[in-house]
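Case study 2.
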Amino acid sequence: MMNSDLSPKNPAGTPKNPAGPAPEPDVPAPRTAAEDPKSATDPATPAPVPVDNPDRVELAPYTIPQVPAIGWDPGTSPRRRWIARGLLGAVLAVQAALSLRLLAAAHPDEAAAMVAGRQQLAHLLHGTPVTTDLVDRINGSPWLYPPLAGAAADANGIWGTRLLSLGFALLTTVLVYSLTRRLFNERVAICAIAVYAVLQSTVVVGFYAAPEALAVLLVALAAWAVVFTSRRHPALVLTAAPALALACAVAYSAALAVPALVALALATARPGGRPGPAALRALLLAAGTVVLLLPYGTLGEVAGWSPSHGNAPGSAGAILLSTLQWGGLFTVLAVAGTIAYARREQMTEHDAPEKDAAPTSRARRALLGTALTATALLVPAAHLWTGTSGALFRHLGYGMLLAAPLAGVGLTRLVGAHFRHPQLGILVWVALLALGLEQSALRYQNGPDSGRLLAVLRVHTEPQGHYLTEVDGLAEYYLGAVSKPEQWVSARAGTDYRDGAGVQHHGDDGSTAAIRDGWFTMVVLDSTAPRATDRALSDALAGSGHYRLVAQFTSPTGDSSTYKVYLKH
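Prediction:
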């Protein structure tokens, strides 16, 4: 009969654990420091931890070490560089697409630049005399941007000139990326150009034949040079002076950016250094710019320039509303970035500690942010002071350019570290994109229908006629086959006219005297012209009895600008 006890047995044949669990092995109690002197002096021997509950082991407390304010990654990873370059290319493609979609006839300012440029270029190459008075319409040196515009127009008409501006605008965005990356890092730089590239001023000026496109590029180049030389000898800041002086000569409006760049030279000096070299950088940049402007005789024009020169009048309410619509959200983002950066410097905004030997002080961060964002507020303030709004959309580009790095900081802070809130950044960017799309399209449509105006002018233009126009450049550019530029007199520049009594008249008085005598074949008025000139011409036309109104075109988008065409009986 088989044994029914199937429990396992030990080698001696005794059942395993016949009387319950085996007794616990003897564990020696931990020895105190008095019993074991070696454990008290040996650092490799951990101190005994008293345990109240044998089943629970408590860990020693752990303290997170202090994290530096500046990151440690120098950003030399090839993968990181190529990703940043790819995003830069994508932003440039979006910017180019937004600008290229703006298809319209030439604006009078564009036409004036091309007509004057063609004559300036012919004068430089062949000595042909300049017969048009549109040279005075250019708010900059007539020997810098106009010849470039004339050469581009000779190559491919208005498209050639606008493509030239597009090239300037894309290079400006590249410089904004580079200087922002040097101030902060790739992440902030991508955010900066992402918001800058979709702004109305960026999109429109990027496809607009005006000196401001080149001037903004030169201001960006000067800012980049200031940042690039910030860790080097103070005298090297003079490398930024030629670009800044040239920008002021190309478009006198670039003088609005000079104070910001001088302050930037002071704010970007080596952290922890003596205040003397920092102040020397600012002084050298200002003095170098002034000295370079002296030989060309443009210092007086730059110093005396104001937004009222050749600009349309505008009420304070209209200027404020336009500023809020075109740059309000962007400016708020830049100001928020300035405040946040001044309060605290974060490691996500800097890369390599070798760039900054020590974290910058709060005062220096506040100075840097203020220097970059001040122009965004200075430009509308200058237009409010003079009560003009015609070129506000172009002049805002200087402020947007310099404020872009801090707008990138603001967007980065909004998203948070490790992309904690990406939806907030996407929301802000989409809002800026939608505003840029709509406002840039309206900018090209908010004037009266120039196509209808040209159709009327083409019918009534005669080879031997005399024409007075407030719409400078449009007829001279498009009607070159049936008239000459010298036949069109700019009402904004005034007329030199001798009446039947032999009295010589100049300026607005000359224009009104010629209208009273019926000397002009046709008169074209534009309500965006200077108010005093427009009123004087309207009164003269009404009282002369020689002219009748044959056409009137008002903006289809509700803008107040209107074209009126008067023809001699």
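Strands lie at 467-469, 488-490, 497-498, 504-505, 522-526, 547-554, 562-568.
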